[in-house]
Amino acid sequence: MPPLLTTLVQLGGLQLVLASSALVRNKVLAERLGADGFGMFAQLAAVASLAATIAAFGFGMALKRHAAGAAGHDAQQALLAFANRATLQTGGMLVTLAALWLMVAHQPLAPLGLEEPGVTARWTAAVLIAFVPLQALLMQRVGFLAGLKDVRGMARGRAVAVVAVTLVGIPVVWHYGLLAAGLQAVALAAAAVFALNARLRKLGFDPWRVRTNTHPERGLVRLGVASLAAGFAVAGADVILRTAIIGTLSVAAGGHYQAGMALTLQLREAVLGSVGLLSIVGFTGARGVGERQATFKRLMDAAVPAAAVAFGTLAAFGRPLLTLLYSDAFAPAAVLLPGLLAGEFLTVAAWALAGPVLAEHATRAWLTFELAASGTRLTAGLILLEIAGLAGVGWAYTAAAATHALLLAAYVAWRGWLRIPVTQAVSVLIGSAAVVAAAQLPLAQTHAWAAWAAWAVPLTFAFASSYQSGGLHRTWTSVRQKTFARGA
After folding, report:
1. Closest CA to 378 of 404, 355, 399, 361
2. pLDDT for position 115
3. Among candidates 20, 68, 456, which has minimal Cα distance to 271?
4. Positions of the chain with pLDDT under 70
5. CB within 8 A of 43, min separation 6: which ones?
6. Residues near 219 by beta carbon (within 8 Å), at least 6 away in sequence
């Protein structure tokens, strides 16, 4: 099996385990808490994730890039030690501030649209404070091991930890509800950090070493700050949109939004989460336009057909899947899927295009494009929420992804780092349109045949795309040649 495909399979296996366990946890939460409770927990978790993004200081992305290019084990350990220091300091400050706010504020959760959430929600928020530094350390370690290309070791330990905590936590969450869900989130992050620390020790690294001198790793800090700003913009826009949805519609609508977002994001990570990693690592070692061109082609040839099948399946069977994986109360989330899935398809192309930008250390340009995409999503989301309701928020996601991909494509072409073939650009646009078509027909029709007919659209495109890129063509040619050889 080619190395690229092997890595894709290994990373895909990890993401499949993570996504499957997340779906199980979401199912239990949805049945136990209902749409209102699920929306409340999603809002609290989103704020905790935003805080974790700040505490991580962008080192998840920065370590991925710099660990891959570091000159030896000692240099890699120094990068990890420097990141540890910054993450622990920032995380400690955020935990202190959050604890003080919960203690002194009269209605600490009111800014999130949760005016009178009750004592349980406050305790859940308090528990999720512990999630912040743990999640930040997890993001940092995942980035570091990804930069080392230790895919198999990272995947195995983390997958076992997540599955174990999920299985133990299901009956606890079902019995105790919202508070137990917060405890489970903390336990998941802690177990994953423990597993990745064990892997680091096996590779000869000290996972808790903290760099005490004040000399910064300038390249690491530069990319870390840029990644922090981008991550903050993405997570901040998401929290603002969630708050607007709760204020404009209801807390239950916030739960519907979380269900649609979680389902599409988990599918993207399970099937195509490795594209972003391989883009950064692959382009870092590429020399010249020819190697970049070959790397980009390999990524897109693998990603586009896979995206068509994965997103097309969810598009065609979105409503029954939402009902199955959550509950009947979450069926309204299906209106989000056309916009979300089209955006996810375009995001795959943006991931691949970001590789040469980061490999060439064009940090400012990369950050500018990330902020432009987040700004587009927030602005369009707030406007379209008033016009089209929850469905409008989904289309705002498409607008943001399109903005991001177009800016990256124009920039790498202008700098001469990559020549984007017209066939691949058209393939991404057609694939995105095929997914939208597959999602719209079942929404407009109540007959069972509509979903199956809609499913044929992205499947046909995936087959044609794979054949055009050469994968199916080479297989068919090989089979035909062997058949004729036997006949001769």
Report:
1. 399
2. 65
3. 20
4. 1-16, 68-69, 115-117, 151, 212-219, 270-287, 441-488
5. 112, 113, 114, 239, 242, 243, 246, 254
6. 66, 361
* Distant-in-sequence, close-in-space partners of 111: CB < 8 Å, separation ≥ 6: 243
User: What integer pLDDT is reported at residue 487 of this predicted model?
Assistant: 43
Burial (0-12, 13-18, 19+ Cβ within 10 Å), 476: exposed
pLDDT given at position 190:
92
- What are the structure tokens assigned to 184, written together? 């489970």
pTM assigned to the model? 0.76
What angle, rounded to 10 degrees, do the helices at 363-388 and 390-415 form? 160
Separation CA 331–CA 336 (nearest Å): 10
What gap in Å lies between CA 283 and CA 52, rounded to an integer? 28
